[in-house]
Amino acid sequence: MAKMNKEAIIKELESQANPKNVAGMARFGIQGEKMLGISMPVLRKMGRDIKKSGSDTHQLAQELWESGIHEAKILAGIIDDPRLVTAKQMDSWIKDFDSWDVCDQVCMNLFDKTDFAFDKCIEWSQRKPEFEKRAGFALMAAFAWHRKDVPDTKIAEFLPYIVKESTDDRNYVRKAVNWALRQIGKRSDYLRKEAIKTAQEILKIDSKTAHWIANDALRELSQK
What we know:
Helix content: 55-70%
Number of domains: 2
């Protein structure tokens, strides 16, 4: 398979564009300036093909990200090499997050595999911009899910930050805080107990948002 360049990849993306899907994505809160309406299975297959082509995926990822195309940014997260990703790149990319799906896909497909992931979970969870803060909690969820090389006691260090930010009533933040709490609790028996204790602590906060986060997590984590 021949090596691929940015122009060829974008041309392929544009050939897969589906305007009807863009309208459907909007109903799920998926937004962005340059949206093509391409499904995740198609993007994952493209990602596999690009990796097999022997292309410089790290350089390509940066070029695709800079294109500003919604699906190109998701594809960038699929093909980039986490070993080459720097903390500076991560901080730069999250400032371009403009939709929950780009945020979550990049965190799940790339950022959680980097050497900086743990520190960024905590740092970003305290950011003010909505999608930057969401990235902190989406990364916590992905990190707890995928990083089996990290001890449970280290994952438990995220829980105080979940308590701290549980009153943020912005939709994309509160849902990510809830996701992180549930994902941490599903990792092991030890963390399930710790997450339940955390949810019970959040319930004591005088906040409608905090109560929703805690009750939703308890419904899932209390089931054996």
